[in-house]
Amino acid sequence: KCMDYMDGRVSTGESKWTDERKLKGIGVPMIFLQVAQVLAANGGDELAERKINGFIEEIREFVRDDIECVMEQIGIDGEVVDHIDARTLNPGHAIEGAWFILHEAKLRGGDQELVDLGCRMLDYMWKRGWDHEYGGLAYFKDVYDKPVQEYWHDMKFWWPQCEAIIATLLAYKLTGDEKYAKWHRLIHEYAHQTFHDEQHGEWYGYVHRDGRVSSMLKGNHYKGPFHLPRMQWYCWKLLQS
Fold first, then answer.
1. 182 lies in a domain?
2. How far is the CA of 155 from the CAs of 10, 131, 233, in angstroms?
3. Which range marks the domain in which residue 154 is found?
4. For strand 63-64 and strand 88-89, is the pairing parallel, antiparallel, or unpaired?
5. How many domains does the chain have?
6. What does the pLDDT look like over 52-99, one tens digit per residue?
């Protein structure tokens, strides 16, 4: 019977689909904000300049002050959806979004409302993502501390550490709060001690929770020459200023 189905001799009937979960993700307005900032700063793009406030408002929808969290996905009306996909948090991604907001605050001469927003995002997700036992930011968390479906949830990837290095330094630069200087030292030392290949240079991309290197590769379809050099360049320019 199974072979009949496989060969198409017996119909499997009409396709059956479940309804889609009506969700939206923070990734789209985050990336559009960063792209718009670059276009506005380097090309004088007026459309990009006009769109920036809208992207910030979209990002704001994902910042839940009631539970001190930046959601990765929310329902269409802004609600937290209690499903294993929608509950999944990505602390490094949210912290990347935090420094995009802080960067805009910096461009506006230290806009205090945006500084407050960016720092809340950083505070919430540092608290949820930082591994107090081994150091570094975990890859995924559940908003209610329920099980996470991805098996690599407790691993440390190179890029969230890079984004946190930027965010903590920028937060310290804008606020002078020693808390951010302390966090910056923590993440900077952890990342460089854990991911840097002292013999051959560059960074490994993936380590286990305890810091053991998971793979020796330095690049693949996902790990390209982006997060690490951006972190180094941005922090260098920030310290120069």
1. yes
2. 45, 10, 26
3. 20-240
4. unpaired
5. 1
6. 999 999 999 999 999 999 999 999 999 999 999 999 999 999 999 999
Q: What is the pLDDT of residue 1?
A: 62
d(CA 121, CA 59): 10
Question: Percentage of the chain surpassing pLDDT 90?
Answer: 88
Residue-averaged pLDDT of the chain: 95
Residue corresponding to tokens 């006009």: 50
Between CA 86 and CA 70 the distance in angstroms is 12
Q: Please check whether residue 6 lies inside any domain of the structure.
A: no
2 within domain boundaries: no
Is residue 137 packed enough to be buried (19+ CB in 10 Å), middle (13-18) or exposed (0-12)? buried
CA–CA dist 77, 10 (Å, integer)? 44
Q: Which DSSP symbol is given to 203? A: B
Q: Is residue 13 part of a domain?
A: no
Contact 137, 205 (CB under 8 A): no
**Angle of helix 112-129 versus helix 91-107 axis, rounded to 10:** 160
Summarised one tens digit per residue, pLDDT across range 154-205 is: 999 999 999 999 999 999 999 999 999 999 999 999 999 999 999 999 999 9
CATH code, domain with 122 = 1.50.10.10
Residues 36-58: b if buried by 16+ CB within 10 A, e if exposed: bbebbeeeeeeebeebbeebbeb
Determine whether 103 is exposed, middle or buried from the number of CB atoms within 10 Å of its CB (0-12, 13-18, 19+): buried
